Amino acid sequence: MKPVDAGKGTADAGKGTAMTAAQVIGEELLTVAQVAARYGVSTDSLYRWIEKGALPVVRIGPFRRIRIRARDADRLLVADEGT
Fold this sequence. Notes:
41% helix; globular; 83 residues
């Protein structure tokens, strides 16, 4: 899935589809560091999964900071624990 700009609803140059700001309002958004701490994985691994398109991100604000929806992290990392 492509990183998205939650402020404008337009897609970044990455993989996947775009989301509007309304699609992420009310969802728990986490930083890369928060996801790493919550699941006990390295930030390097998370950035690698983001680059490969395995972990979707939301881009926030004018500096396009990366945020990860908690449900996307759960889907990838909780499923990964079962293997």
